[in-house]
Amino acid sequence: MRDIGWEEKASRFVDLDRRPMQTIFKLYPWEWMLAERFAPHALATMGHGQKDPVQWIEPIWKMLWSNKALLAILWELNPNHELLLPAYLDGPRNLKDYVKKSLFGREGKGVKVFRDWVEGKPEKGSEAPAESESSSESEPCVYQKLAVLAESGGNYAVIGSWLIDGEPAGMGVRESRALVTTNTSRFVPHLFR
What we know:
It is built from four helices and 15 strands. It has 193 residues and is mainly beta. The strands form five sheets. Strands 5-11-6-7-10 form a five-stranded antiparallel β-sheet, with helices on one face. A four-stranded antiparallel β-sheet has the order 12-13-14-15, with no helix packed on it.
């Protein structure tokens, strides 16, 4: 990142030799990038009519799909759909067993699991919420009905699948002894041909 420069006059990113950068591959999440001091420069490189636009890999629109507010929006647009779980932005509402997730959390960060809770309070005999690496209490979050995970031998598994043009392309199984899988959970990728 220190090798990337900004040429103010031409409004473009440049390398160490001051050559314009035409493509930037990033693994840094957009929501983190937009909180950095150089965020206006990144946004300036993708405007229409830009003399030297940058091709970003991954494009900024991918940020929409990593925002968990989408879970509540999908539920609102398709209530009771068999492939969706109830999800809300304004609290758990009538959910008794639910998870609280940071809107921009990744790989389990900031996820709290609540079981046997009613109106934000535990029912008699319920356990304290299970929690992954915490996030700030002021971070916006979504409340979603708790889904029963596959469990075997005291391990819980989450399956992630990828489709390309509607066809199966890959799958990953993330497994942990905790209810919330994280970036340190065991992971096994699978490839479909």
